[in-house]
Write a structure and sequence with these properties.
8 helices, 8-stranded parallel sheet, Arginase, Chain A, 318 residues, single chain
Length: 318
């Protein structure tokens, strides 16, 4: 068998960056995940939101703002396209009018993706999608560890009487046995709550909770060294809500909270996952109607690229 030809992002020297296909990083498209090591997948869902909608438009805007991304990571020396076969496999065709049906559709789609050994990187979409994705991950890997970046713990028991919404996925994931609670870290939690003990449920399950206040004025590189030690050798999923970042950097989201993480801290968190067995990740809650400059989607696109750079099997160039 000859050496396989790996997909490459379309170069800005071949086609101007304002032209060409509107795919993630201007990568080739594929119908499915067969033969891929990693795939970018859109989930244009926002019927699980509780405040401002608009995240259904996130995947398209993230793809558009990814057009400036180039193949090589100049800071970490990661060269993902030198060793991984990567493509954009399009969007999951959710049911616009039925959240529960959409959850089942997403679960089935991701079960198919991971059946090929492909590691999905998801362009959201609201955070409800984490539940069906984690179901698919647990189907293949068993209970997984999670690095969860968010302003909110997303552990509500119900919202308006509904047990599935963007504020409930991690409680449902614990109840369904999808997570290894001793290998879950939540970073960036902050804001006001309904009760003084709102974040304590996470701690009671065994999660490590790192509130935003513990991150102020500091590099998060030392924290991530501790996280790598805690999570160890098992499978790890990255779930990154863009509202974990301060709205000064990421205003285009549905449930913004002040005094959050900075853009450099966000990059430190994802880069700090290098060496873990990262089985996939998501970047959720980008809402373009509140993002007139495109900066929120631009940050989201870069964080998804950084997730690609920490997947197992990525080549690092000297």
């Amino acid at each position: 068998m000859g050496e396989r030809t790996l997909n490459q992002p379309l170069s800005g020297n071949t086609m101007p960056r304002f032209g060409g296909p509107a795919t993630m990083m201007r990568l080739p498209t594929r119908e499915g995940a067969a033969g891929l090591d990693a795939a970018f997948v859109g989930v244009p869902l926002d019927i699980g939101t509780s405040n401002r909608p608009g995240a259904r438009l996130g995947p398209r805007q993230i793809r558009d703002e990814s057009r400036m991304l180039r193949p090589y990571n100049m800071a970490t020396r990661a060269a993902p396209f030198d060793s991984l076969q990567v493509a954009d496999i399009g969007d999951v065709p959710i049911n616009t009018f039925d959240l529960k049906k959409s959850v089942d559709i997403i679960h089935d789609a991701y079960r198919e993706i991971v059946s090929h050994g492909c590691r999905p990187l998801t362009l959201g979409g609201d955070h409800t999608l984490a539940l069906p994705v984690l179901r698919a991950m647990a189907d293949r890997y068993g209970p997984v560890g999670v690095v969860h970046v968010d302003a909110h713990a997303d552990i509500n028991d119900q919202m308006f009487g509904e047990r599935i919404a963007h504020g409930t996925p991690f409680r449902r994931a614990v109840e369904e046995g999808l997570l290894d609670p001793q290998r879950v870290v939540q970073i960036g939690l902050r804001g006001t709550g309904y009760a003084a003990d709102d974040f304590d449920w996470s701690r009671e399950q065994g999660f490590r909770v790192v509130p935003a206040e513990a991150c102020w004025y500091r590099s998060l590189t030392p924290l991530m060294a501790e996280v790598r030690e805690q999570l160890g050798a098992g499978p790890v999923y990255i779930s990154f809500d863009i509202d974990g970042i301060d709205p000064a950097f990421a205003p285009g989201t549905g449930t913004a909270e002040i005094a959050g993480l900075t853009a450099p801290q966000a990059v430190e968190i994802v880069r700090g996952c290098q060496g873990l067995d990262v089985i996939g990740g998501d970047l959720v809650e980008v809402a373009p109607p509140y993002d007139p400059s495109g900066n929120t989607a631009l940050l989201g696109a870069n964080l998804l690229y950084e997730m690609l750079c920490v997947l197992p099997g990525v080549t690092y160039r000297d």
